[in-house]
Amino acid sequence: MATAATPDSTAATTTTTTAKRIPVFVKVDDLRPGTNGHTLIVKVVSSNNVVNKGPNVGAGRATSVPLNSRPRPRIAECLVGDETGTVIFTARNEQVDIMKPGTTLILRNAKIDMFKGSMRLAVDKWGRVEVTEPANFVVREDNNLSLVEYELVNVVGV
């Protein structure tokens, strides 16, 4: 009596693939305070390195790493924009090297940080800054959203 080998039906393999979301590109003029998850195509207008002061030596913080051996973060404030307006982008560490005037970038998962009442665009570790082919738009420099000062107002009794 011979038995035929049958495939085991209980060991069915299922592969799940998640479909990636198609990015929705927004314009600089559509940015609002406190928002995040933006994808933009922008050109770098200018880039200024910010001189950082070192860590506070007398702040009383206990650290296991000597203050001299910690790498000092590099920060640059860059004016970026598209055909609708401009905004200041805060570039950190590796992003500083990419920020050359005239470069066209795709900013993925960008967020709006508030600094002294004005908007700053930033991309943290969850986002990405990519250099792309040069865009054919002219940056509108007269609409700088970072020059608009915002004030937080608490509404009581609503």
UniProtKB/TrEMBL annotation:
SUPFAM superfamilies registered for this protein in UniProt: Nucleic acid-binding proteins (SSF50249)
Highest taxon above the source species: Eukaryota
InterPro entries for this protein: NA-bd_OB-fold, OB_Ssb-like
Boundaries of every Single-stranded DNA binding protein Ssb-like OB fold domain copy: 31-131
Descriptive protein name: Single-stranded DNA binding protein Ssb-like OB fold domain-containing protein
